[in-house]
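Format is chain and fold; as here:
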Amino acid sequence: MTSDLHNLSLHQPYQDPADVIIADGSTMPITHTGSISLPTQSRALHLNNVLYVPDIHKKLISVYRLCNANRVSVEFFPASFQVKDLSTGTPLLHGRTRDELYEWPINPSQVSAMFATPSSKATVSSWHSRLGHPASSILNTVISQFSLPVSKQFHKLLPCSDCFINKSHKIPFATSTITSSRTLEYLFSDVWSSPILSLDNFKYYVIFVDHYTRYTWLYPLKQKSHVKETFMAFKSFVENRFQTKIGTLYSDNGGEYVALRAYLATHGISHLTSPPHTPEHNRISERKHRHIVETGMTLLSTASVPKTYWPYAFAVAVYLINRLPTPILHLQSPYQKLFGVAPNYDKLRVFGCSCYPWMRPYNHHKLDDRSLRCVFLGYSNTQSAYYCLHILTGRIYTSRHVQFDESTFLFALPTLTEISTSDDIPPSTIGGHSPTTLPNSPSTPPANPCSDLHAAHSPPSSSVGTTQVSPLNSNSSSSPSTSERTAPQENGPQPTAQHPHPPNTQNSPSAHSHLNNPISPMAQIESSQTFSSSQSQTQSDASSSSSPTISPPPK
């Protein structure tokens, strides 16, 4: 318990009125809850659900919660105490008694580190960009409800030209009259066609929107005919994940959905369709399309990212939309409605900004640069990590240790030669690049909603261009905290389902295999890290011999 609200990170109002009863029988109200980090000699100890009690005179720590949440033990002595790591027995902290209480020692220099957030001086406009350019009313709700740190000098949202350019639209559709009482009772779906082919030849995406929670799943497609196998994999995933059945699927009369009728009838799923040439009747899907496309296009425009990267931006857009409050849910987010837990905005960063992943494991010698200047492309949903694109080589690095410069955008620079700050590639070789991308995957919900950062999407993949650095072969490995991947061209259908339970692989090596056969939707659910490749090993070897590569260290 604490009496200082500034001690808590991302605090929120206490849900139910409650009081703390003290020794003399009097009560003190609890108004907020939050999290706190306590520094030690080797690692920080974290406490969640810390109570904010304004009238309390002493800050108190529950030894039971401290030990169980951090796997530590506490030894008490008459004049001191000691905190040890439960696994190794290593001492982490020593404290003394004061006024007949055991006092947790904190140096003045550690206080700011305990309660600082990565965005302590962020402006309202910066949060507007981080959250994917939401409406001002939604932005103010998030800032107020989660007490996000905002600079006092720039506390008002300035006019956003990117929103004006990319969000101009007609009068909205009428409100839907369908009511639902549970998750997956009504599922709305539609296919969107892109006028621009992505780097991996994706031309479509299909969305599934749950009417009850408004949670959205997005799958990039190369052909409309892949909708059937994508839905079959999606059905198995969500019904197993949420232990409930899909009741009704609402779509248009497109051929991709007509092919689903027999399958839906076999599994007892009703199929409602909109009349021909009246997309307004499928208003939930149509409005969701507009929201995704507007947000994604705004992300691309803000960072000057080429439109061939639209699957990345749309995947991040869905990730953010699922975590933003909506008036339809009485200012709850779809994520909170689905999982009953508030989303975490602590690690959001501006899409397309400059980033610097930790590259030490890839160094050939000790004097190599420790990082590369990359472009931030999204969040991993299988690791607590970010995706970083190195433009010059077209390589994607998945790293937990990333530093960001949210004020600069590499794609907006006049020439790509300005990017070559830590590479061995001469400026004459820059140009005609076709960066590789990430494994294509949908916006799948996390198994543990509390680990919120990378749990709901992974950006789709793209192909390697003719001038591209050759991809790593199938026996390459990655570093404990930074992994590297390139995705060769793929053949056949690529339904993009992702494993619903992201493993904790922050500190363990990961390797990605390149297969010659397309992956079935069920296989991708079981193994989300697998790639498919139509390039021969001879071509890869030839390309790698003429282009610079970065070799990861052995496991």
User: Anything to note?
Assistant: Residues 300 and 307 are 7 Å apart (CA to CA). The radius of gyration is 25 Å. Residues 283-303 form the longest helix (21 residues). The longest strand covers residues 9-21.
